[in-house]
Specification:
- This protein has eight helices and nine strands.
- It has helices at about 15-20, 40-55, 65-75, 90-105, 130-155, 180-200, 225-230, 240-250; strands at about 35, 55-60, 80-85, 110-115, 160-165, 175, 205-210, 265, 275.
- The longest helix is centred in the middle third of the chain and has 29 residues, at about 130-155.
């Protein structure tokens, strides 16, 4: 363990993801098709590895075809089923094309995981119009485009489906990324609304809210901010992408078949305890 109780190895590379222990049976998702946006990195990549190891064919989608293909190739090289697809979730036409290809290739979709997103740490008062719109368009609108496209396919086929949206802890304590808090709060509210509307169609929608999870995305934060993250929860450590992946599989898979409209917070108790300043805690609060 490192200072603050943070694990030294957080299982972010393919070798670790291929061998990480899991509570699930190896056939828990046998023969299912799982589409993961943002599947090439961080939480999306860990989720792709786990779903593939549980027997699913995973489709890793992202704006960079090269990155998605490399991630899918690593999973395939380990003997699992994976493929890649390029998509810009901000563009409904690109999302529609993705679903056309997916159904042409597989004829079905069982689970959609919306892991794609992005933000940058900055005091809200300094957001530019372009910066604000970019985060809202990706994190809220892009998630919606994917959700609606999947739901329409399931409705038209008379087939059930499951959606898991990766959001953030919005109840308290996350500062310096007000744009993504706004967008992800919208996703949470949207998920709860359509969970009711789409329940008669056999479609479940749930959200996972990670706390301080160490992924390559940490590079955008200052060293001071990163150093404080393990102290943002009473377990005094950062979480792992693998821990989020196991939560996604629970909500997305058959174990949660009577769960919809739920928000599962995975933050080591952080929402009950501390605060996370992605921009570093301002001096005027250090009293």
């Amino acid at each position: 363990m490192t200072d603050g109780g943070e694990p030294e190895s957080l299982g972010l590379d393919d070798a670790a993801l291929a061998e990480a222990k899991t509570v699930y049976a190896s056939d828990a998702l046998a023969d299912q098709v799982v589409l993961i946006s943002g599947g090439a990195g961080g939480i999306g990549r860990a989720t792709a590895w786990l779903c593939a190891r549980l027997g699913a064919h995973v489709v890793l989608a992202g704006r960079s075809a090269e990155k998605a293909e490399a991630a899918a190739a690593a999973i395939s090289a380990a003997g699992h089923k994976a493929s890649a697809a390029a998509v810009d979730i901000r563009e409904p036409e690109s999302v529609a094309s993705l679903f056309d290809r997916l159904y042409d290739d597989h004829g079905r979709l069982d689970i959609l995981v919306n892991s794609a997103g992005g933000q940058f740490p900055q005091p809200a008062i300094d957001f530019s119009i372009k910066g604000w719109n970019a985060v809202i368009n990706t994190n809220l609108n892009g998630t919606w485009h994917m959700m609606q496209a999947a739901a329409r396919r399931w409705r038209d086929a008379g087939a059930p489906g499951s959606i898991v949206n990766i959001v953030v802890v919005t109840t308290r304590g996350l500062h310096g990324v007000a744009h993504t808090v706004a967008a992800r709060s919208g996703v949470i509210g949207l998920s709860r609304a359509v969970a009711v509307e789409w329940a008669p169609l056999g479609i479940r929608i749930n959200c996972v809210a990670p706390g301080a999870i160490k992924t390559e995305g940490w590079k955008v934060y200052t060293p001071e901010a990163r150093a404080a993250y393990p102290r943002s929860n009473p377990m005094l450590r950062a979480g792992t992408a693998w821990e989020i992946a196991e939560s996604v599989v629970y909500l997305g898979g058959p174990a949660a078949k009577f769960v919809t409209g739920e928000l599962l917070t995975v933050d080591g108790g952080g929402q009950l305890w501390g605060e996370t300043w992605t921009t570093g805690k301002p001096d005027y609060f250090n009293v």
